[in-house]
Every structure is written in C-alpha cells, then in structure tokens.
Amino acid sequence: MLSTKGEFVKILISASITSPAIPEKTEADIQAVDIIIDSANASRDEKIPFTAEELDMETSPLECVYVSIDDVGVKHQKDSRSQGTEKNAKYVENTVVHIQYGQDTYALTACGMKNAMKAMLAFLVFNGLLQNRLVFFTDGARNIKSSIEEMFPFHPYTVILDWYHLKKKCQELLSMAVKGKDMRNKTLEKLLRILWVGDVKNAVRYLESLPSPVIKNQKWLDEQINYLKRKEYSITCYAVRAELGLRNSSNPVEKENDMLVAQRQKHNGMSWSKNGSSALAAIEMVYQNKYEDIWFQHGQISFVMPKKETDSLDLCA
Questions:
Q1: CA 132 vs CA 23, 42, 64, 72, 120: distances in Å
Q2: d(CA 289, CA 188)
Q3: Which of 4, 102, 308, 316 is 20 to 30 A from 244 via CA?
Q4: Where are any strands of DSSP class E within 145-302?
C-alpha cells in the first residue's frame, strides 16, 4: 500500500519479487555444512551452536545479490550567510553502494542515504535482480538498517554485520570496560572467538560473568553487552561462511569509498559544497563502472552491469 495525499493506493508487485525462488538446500548442501560444523566443534572450545538446517545462509554466491552500503563524510565548504539563517552542517555526506551479482559488480553514489537507496532500488529493478536473495553488508549504522527496512518491506533480505566493524567495536568498548592490557586482550580474544561462530547469547553470558576486579568501568561493559544484543539479528556464523567461501566483509564498499570520494576529496585543507562533492563523486562512479564514453558522448548513465570488460556499451536512461 502506498500513501499519497492521505489516500492509499494498492500497488501490485510480482510474486517473483516479493517471494523470490530461492534455491532450497539439497541433502549434499546440508551434509557439507554439517561436516564444517563438526570439524570446527572438534577443534575449538567455542562451539557452533547451530545445525546446518538452522543456518539461514546462501550455499553459493551465485544465488544472491550482495549489497554493501556505507557513508563517507567530507568537510563542508563554508557558505556566506546572513544573520539568522540556518548554519550548514560540518560535513557533506556521500552514500556509496557496491552491488555484486556473481562476478559482476556496479558502484552507485548519491548525496544522502535516501537518494542512494532510491538509485539502488532502480538499479535492482532494471537488472531484474529482485528475483534473487538480497544480502546486505553494513557497518552496523542505524540509519542503514532503518533505510533498508523502509525501502524493502516487500522483499526478503538478510543483513550481515561486517566482521571487521564488529571486531573494531568490541576493541573500542572493551578498552574502556576492562582493566589492564593483558586482561583486556585476553577478554577480547575469547569474545571474538565466541562471536566468530555467531553465538551472541554465549558471548553475553561470558561478559556478564567477568569478575568485578577486572572491570574498569561497568558502564562500558554494559554498553558492550547491549551492543551485542542490539546487533544479534545481523551477527551470523562467520566461521561457516568462511569455510563455504562466502563473504563476511563489506570491504568492497570501503574500497569504493576510497576511489569515488576519499582519494579526491579528503585531502588536508579541502572543503566542498554539497553539489560539488556529489557531482565529483558521480563522475568518479561513471569511470569506475567503465561507462565514461556513454556519459561524455550522450549525457546518459548506463545501469547495465558490466561483464568483466566484455560488454558493449549499451545505452539506457
């Protein structure tokens, strides 16, 4: 249902989009995951607490579309303004999206999360990719989570918290929560081993059982515990994914951030207007997707996903 001027309009969406035909796990798939789980549990104290049937993950990268989303801020150029006008934000926020389907990739950028999400949805529709499972990789930012929920209420998807950002957050919080370098490193190592198998409940129990003499600040320990509880929905069994050769990282979008925005716009002394920053990032995006000829010759942007240097430059609006 779409609301417009107080009225509700019913929009019909194909069942292939709202209920995509995701391949069911075969007996061979289940056995392969069971072998991985048994092998891991035999070699480590931190056990994988799931069965192969309980793990909701793709068996192959070819059956899903991987989407990584991230924001990058650059210093906002100071504008002259008259007294009483609203002060400009300190940073211009560019949102970068990296989309991967099989071996093919595409980069999108827009000024602001909402605009980027609209462009991403248009790209997925144009390429018929909504008939596949969607897997989003994020750094855990709340605005990314809420934007995904707002944009895709009609389509099943999975959100995975990038392992690097999960590890980094735990390092930051435990540095303020636990006394002494040695004890802090020991606690962090144990916590990460538990989280590597996706066992958030056991991770919380472990933190709650820490003896009071090692706790430097209970406030930050509570924040670490609450953080894990809030992000439990997006903490997966990274160990099994790694053994299956599946992605655990949003690293591709971090690289796109560097190429589209950071390398050119984040040098010392640089500042940007909103229009200038987003326009330059968009030009870098055209080059990154290898469709610069279309843009400079025809003033159009192609949404066709390039195929490893072999695609002809087909036009699209």
A1: 10, 35, 5, 28, 15
A2: 40
A3: 308
A4: 157-161
**Tokens in use for 289?**
């997707």
pTM, two decimals, is 0.83
The dihedral formed by the CA atoms of 35, 37, 38 and 43, expressed in degrees to the nearest 10: 120
- Give the domains, in start order, of the chain with CATH numbers: 63-79+87-162+249-317 (3.30.420), 164-238 (no CATH)
